[in-house]
Amino acid sequence: QEPLMETGGGLVQAGDSLRLSCLASGYDLSGRVWGWFRQTPGNEHEFVAAISGSASTTYYADSVNGRFTVSRNYNKNMMDLQMTALKPGDTASYFCAVHYLPSLSRTEAMNWHGYEYWGQGTQVTVSS
Questions:
Q1: pLDDT of residue 36
Q2: Tens digits of per-residue pLDDT, 1-50?
Q3: Which has the closest alpha carbon to 52: 2, 109, 94?
Q4: In the chain, % of residues over pLDDT 90
């Protein structure tokens, strides 16, 4: 069983909102940094947002800052990504990931190589 599973993707229009969720099961990943990345065909994973193990620190890519909000739900072992004012450029497969450390600098959080667990991704398509 994959430890992470994303839900909530879909087809929306520019300006709409969408909420992605990431559920962890089978593993205690509560104290680690969780992150969201996105990927388009032929490109590497692009950092979107991350939240520390304590949820006290969040990081966002410049392209989504002010529009996206990452949050943790420890009771449900979940992480959410609330996306607002969506743009066609946000179209991608969105992946949640969990790092092996509880806290990171922004530079470290943006580096997808350090994330240990990954979901299978959920597609977000924003039409103009």
A1: 98
A2: 678 999 999 999 999 999 999 999 888 888 899 999 999 999 999 999 99
A3: 109
A4: 88
Q: 113, 89, 104, 125: which is closest to 51 by C-alpha?
A: 104
Looking at residue 97, its amino acid is A
The rounded distance, in Å, linking the Cα atoms of 27 and 19 is 23
Q: Note whether 125 and 10 are within 8 A (CB).
A: yes
Cβ within 8 Å of residue 48, ≥6 positions away:
35, 36, 37, 38, 60, 61, 64, 68, 81, 94
User: Contact at 8 Å (CB) between 47 and 115?
Assistant: no
Q: Which residue's entry shows tokens 């392209």?
A: 63
What is the mean predicted confidence (pLDDT) over 46-68? 97
Are 86 and 12 spatial neighbours (Cβ–Cβ below 8 Å)?
yes
CB of 17 closer than 8 Å to CB of 82? yes
Q: 16: which 2 tokens? A: 């709409």
DSSP-assigned states of every residue in 61-103:
-TTTBTTEEEEEETTTTEEEEEE-S--GGG-EEEEEEEESSS-
